[in-house]
Design brief:
single chain, ten-stranded antiparallel beta sheet, six-stranded parallel beta sheet
Length: 620
C-alpha cells in the first residue's frame, strides 16, 4: 500500500489489488475495478498480481510503479509498466502506462486506468444539486457537450477521442461538492467507455495500438477539485492547453491571415451548383432520374447574391457546394474543371467577383480524404493502406465508390488545386476541407507513406495552413481539438441528439456548451435555425438553433433566398457574434429548475440570457 500526499490531496494505491483512492477535503473517490487487456482474437485478461512494485520519485513528482507480466506463446511475455504519480506543485495526478514486448497486431485494446466510482451515486440522485444541476453527474465532450445525471444510462458510438464522441480529449465527474477532470495527455489512439455497474457509473479510459503496436507511453492526467462544475472543468482544460502552447486564438489566426478578420459577424450562406449521383452511391434513385442529375448556373447564384445586396445585406460568408466537374462530392481530389454546364471556369470566376463586389466572402466546399475511383489521378498506391494490406471502401456519397487518400499526400493536392484556381483567375477567399475536423484520424500502413493518427492530424492541419498562407479562410466540418489550431470556421458543432437529422430529436443527457466554454475565442461556430423553428441537425426538437446561436455568441445561417424580414431577424445575432468573437466564454448557467432559461457570460462581462420556450434574448 502506498500513500502519497500532495498539497491538498492524498493518493492511496495498492497495485496488488488494483485499488486506488483519492481524498480531497474529506471527499473520497475510489477505483475498485481491475483494468484489462484485450488481445487480437478477443481474449481479455485482467491485470494480474504485479511482478514487481515500488516507490518512484522525480524532481517534480512522487508516486509508485507496478510491473505486470502477461505470458504469451513460445515463452514470450508482454510487460505493462503502470505508474501513478502526484505532481508536487499542482496536485495533478498522472497515470502512465508503458507496454513492452508486444508484437505487431497482437494487442487490440487496453482498458486502463480503472474508472473512479461514484460511490453512493444512486442514493445521491434524489439529492438537490446546485445551480439547477443534478447532485451527481458525468461531463462528456460529445460534440458541443453533454452532461449525464447519475442514474441515467446513455449509449456512445465508439468512445473515440477526436471524433464526435469526444471533440476534446477530456471527461469529468461531479459528486456533490467534489469532482475531477480527466485529461488525455496522450489523446491519439485513445478511447473511453461507460461503466454502469450499480454504484460505480465510472468512465473508463482506454488505448488502442498505433500502427499495430503500443509504441509509446500512454498517459492520463486527473485534476481533483472541490466546489466544481463543468464550467471549472472547461477553464481547467483551457489552462492546460494554454500552458502547453496548444491553443491558437482567433486573434492569432487573424494576425497570420488578416483577410480572415472579415469573418466575424457574417451570416453563413450555404448553397450549391451541381449534383451528380453515381449509380454506385447509396443516394442513387433509379426511379427518380431528376434527383440524380441537376444543376443551377453560376450566373443564377450571382444574381441571387446581387438580390441579397439589394435587400440590405452587407456582409456574408458564401459556402458553395458542387462547383466541380461532376458536382458535389465527386471526383475528389481532382474536381476540375468547374462544372461546364453551369458556366465553367468563367462562370465561377464571375460568381466570385460578384460576391466580392457585394462585400461577401466567397468560400467553397473541397475534399481531400474521400478518394474517388473515377478521379483522374486515382491509384491504390496513394490510398490509405490497412494493416492487412487492403484499403478502406465507401460508396455512400454522391460520387459512389471511393477509398481514402493517405493524409500524408493530401497537402500536395491542396497546393496543386489552389494554384489551378489562381491560373483560372478564380478568387477563392474561404475553403472548407470536408470531414477533416469530424472523422477519425486515419492510420496508413503503406511503407512508402506511413502515417500514425497523430501524424494524420498534423497533415490535416498543414492542409488548412496552406490555405491560411494563401489568404484563404480555412474551414472544416465540426471541431476537433487536434485540428482546431489551424481552423478558423466550422460548418456546425451542435449537440449530440438521439437522431441528429430529425426535427423530433431528443436530448441525450443535458446539453451544455462545453466546447464554447473552452474555445469560443478560437473558432467561429455557426448555428442553423430561425426564430421559432424547432429541431434540426444536432438540435433537440424542443429548441431552435437560433436560440443556441444567441446563447453561444455565434453567428447564424441565412438562406440565399432570404427576404428583408429574415435578414432583419438573423443579423442582430450575427452582430452579437461579431461583438463577442474574440471573447472567451467564461460561464454558462441554468437559471430555472426546468433549465429552459440559460445565461452565458463572456470575458468582458457581457451576458446573453435566452428563454428556450419563447426564443426571447436579453443582453447584458
Amino acid at each position: 500500500m502506498y500513500k502519497i500526499k500532495g498539497r491538498g490531496i492524498k493518493l492511496t494505491g495498492d497495485p496488488s489489488s488494483n485499488r486506488y483512492e483519492v481524498e480531497i477535503g474529506g471527499a473520497v473517490w475510489s477505483m475498485t475495478k481491475t483494468p484489462s487487456i484485450r488481445f487480437a482474437g478477443g481474449e481479455v485478461l485482467p491485470f494480474p498480481k504485479p511482478l514487481s512494485e515500488g516507490e518512484r520519485e522525480t524532481g517534480t513528482t512522487k508516486g509508485f510503479e507496478a510491473v505486470y507480466s502477461f505470458p504469451r506463446e513460445g515463452g514470450r511475455t508482454i510487460t505493462l509498466r503502470a505508474r501513478a504519480e502526484v505532481e508536487t506543485i499542482t496536485d495533478d495526478i498522472f497515470f502512465t502506462l508503458i507496454a513492452e514486448g508486444d508484437l505487431q497486431g497482437e494487442i487490440e485494446y487496453i482498458s486502463w486506468p480503472a474508472p473512479f466510482d461514484y460511490g453512493k451515486a444512486y442514493g445521491d440522485t434524489d439529492k438537490p444539486g446546485k445551480a439547477n444541476l443534478p447532485y451527481s453527474y458525468t461531463v462528456l465532450p460529445r460534440m458541443q457537450g453533454t452532461l449525464v445525471p447519475a442514474g441515467t444510462h446513455i449509449r456512445i458510438a465508439s468512445g473515440e477521442i477526436m471524433e464526435r464522441d469526444a471533440y476534446i480529449p477530456i471527461f469529468g465527474q461531479v459528486r456533490g461538492d467534489s469532482g475531477y477532470l480527466a485529461i488525455y495527455d496522450t489523446p491519439f489512439d485513445a478511447r473511453y467507455s461507460l461503466d454502469y455497474e450499480e454504484g460505480r457509473e465510472g468512465v473508463a479510459p482506454g488505448f488502442v495500438p498505433s500502427l499495430g503496436r503500443m509504441a509509446y507511453p500512454r498517459r492520463m492526467l486527473y485534476r481533483f477539485m472541490r466546489n466544481c462544475d463543468y464550467n471549472r472543468f472547461a477553464a481547467s482544460y483551457r489552462q492546460y492547453v494554454d500552458s502547453r502552447g496548444k491553443s491558437v486564438t482567433l486573434r492569432e489566426k487573424f494576425a497570420r491571415n488578416p483577410k480572415a478578420a472579415r469573418l466575424p459577424g457574417c451570416p453563413i450562406i450555404h448553397e450549391g451548383i451541381a449534383v451528380h449521383i453515381s449509380p454506385d452511391s447509396n443516394y442513387y434513385k433509379p426511379d427518380k432520374p431528376e434527383n440524380n442529375d441537376h444543376h443551377v448556373t453560376f450566373a443564377q447564384r450571382a444574381e441571387e447574391l446581387r438580390a441579397l445586396y439589394a435587400k440590405g445585406l452587407r456582409k456574408a460568408y458564401i459556402h458553395l457546394d458542387g462547383w466541380g466537374n461532376h458536382g458535389y462530392d465527386n471526383l475528389h481530389p481532382d474536381p476540375f474543371p468547374p462544372h461546364e454546364a453551369a458556366g465553367g471556369a468563367e462562370g465561377m470566376k464571375e460568381l466570385s467577383e460578384t460576391a466580392r463586389e457585394c462585400g461577401y466572402i466567397f468560400g467553397i466546399h473541397d475534399q481531400y480524404r474521400d478518394y474517388y475511383y473515377d478521379a483522374p489521378s486515382f491509384s491504390f498506391d496513394n490510398a490509405v493502406t490497412q494493416a492487412d494490406g487492403g484499403h478502406p471502401f465507401c460508396s455512400i456519397w454522391y460520387g459512389g465508390k471511393h477509398s481514402y487518400l493517405c493524409s500524408s499526400l493530401a497537402r500536395d493536392y491542396v497546393r496543386r488545386n489552389y494554384a489551378t484556381f489562381e491560373e483560372l483567375g478564380i478568387k477563392i477567399e474561404g475553403s472548407y476541407l470536408d470531414v477533416f475536423s469530424v472523422v477519425s484520424m486515419d492510420e496508413c500502413f503503406n511503407p512508402a507513406h506511413p502515417a500514425t493518427r497523430e501524424q494524420c492530424a498534423a497533415y490535416r492541419r498543414e492542409c488548412l495552413d496552406i490555405l491560411s498562407d494563401r489568404g484563404i479562410i480555412p474551414s472544416s466540418e465540426e471541431v476537433l481539438d487536434c485540428i482546431l489550431p489551424s481552423q478558423v470556421l466550422c460548418h456546425h458543432a451542435p449537440y449530440f441528439t438521439s437522431n441528429l437529422g430529425s426535427t423530433e430529436a431528443q436530448s441525450v443527457g443535458i446539453h451544455i456548451p462545453l466546447l464554447n466554454l473552452v474555445y469560443h475565442d478560437c473558432v467561429v461556430i455557426p448555428w442553423i435555425g430561425r426564430k421559432g423553428s424547432r429541431g434540426g441537425w444536432g438540435i433537440p426538437g424542443t429548441d431552435s438553433g437560433y436560440a443556441h446561436g444567441w446563447l453561444n455568441g455565434n453567428p447564424l445561417y441565412l438562406s440565399i433566398k432570404a427576404d428583408e424580414k429574415v435578414i432583419a431577424e438573423i443579423m442582430p445575432a450575427c452582430e452579437n457574434a461579431e461583438r463577442l468573437a474574440l471573447q472567451k466564454m467564461v460561464k454558462h448557467e441554468f437559471l430555472t429548475p426546468d433549465r429552459r432559461i440559460q445565461r452565458t457570460t463572456f470575458e468582458d462581462g457581457s451576458t446573453v440570457t435566452v428563454n428556450f420556450d419563447t426564443d426571447e434574448v436579453t443582453l447584458g
